[in-house]
Description:
Blueprint: H1 74-77, H2 97-117, H3 126-148, H4 153-158, H5 178-200, H6 207-232, H7 236-249, H8 267-284, H9 310-325
Amino acid sequence: MGGLRALAPGPVPHPRRQPARAGRGVRPAQRPRSVHPARRGRLPLGRAVVRDHRLLARREGPVLRTVRRQALPPPDVLRDPRGSAAPVTTTPAEDTARTAAALALGDDALVLSHRLGEWAGHAPVLEEEVALANIALDLLGQARVLLSMAGDEDELAFLREERAFRNLQLVEQPNGDFAHTIARQLYFSAHQYLLYDALASREGPFAPLAGKAVKETAYHLDHAEQWTLRLGDGTDESHARMQRAVDALWRHTGEMFQPVEGLDVDPAALEAAWLERVTEVLRRATLTVPEGPRTGAWKAGAGRQGLHTEPFGRMLAEMQHLHRSHPGATW
């Protein structure tokens, strides 16, 4: 190390300048030691940061306000989004009926795809992790086609404000436990299958997509039905959890059958077929069909009007964070 020299040996001072206890003498002087370079290898980097929606990296600090207005739009939740492109707050200039319908259906698929993707690494068994990931990918593919019919798919997915999304409130509900996820999937897949089956049988801008997507949604619905039967007609614990999930999400189902501009379907006919299909599955699973209203405190159709529940703001901030933090980035 060149001209560096070790210090002369001397007694080691005791902590806090206190003398040694009785019976102990002062330690012998240290011998001179050479100076060594820093040891290479693994360095302690501290403990892992606990994942929390209110925190980003350790250097960032809290991102959600602790009081009032917890359901914040992404620009208020994300840290310093000024470097990203301007948010997309409105639909494209050609605000036609087809665009409105494409946004509604595309947002449904996009948001539910993200919710199902949150199960990656957390599903109860490996087989279900693969199944939920495949369903999420199917929905993401549908969302890309639908959003492309309304404008630039990336801008519509990652740069719109919360109020500009037109998805159902049902699909944005948190995953909860596995029974909660299955109940949400049962309700939505039954609706989506009937809708795409109707769209595929007639001419229109959505017929080509519906003809392909109806095969995917048939699998989604079958998967949800099989798990509803297994959980509902299983143990006392699984039955109780499935019943709680069915009851909790029932109030969000009425919104699915509100008329959507640009969709040439009969909402009343879809609703009757949906009720028959879902009721049959619940009864086979020894579950009680909820008797409460199928609309919540907000008017049915609120999601289609841009009014969303509190968890949606946090989910959207997480979904849009990477794109807004690195505008223009490509793989």
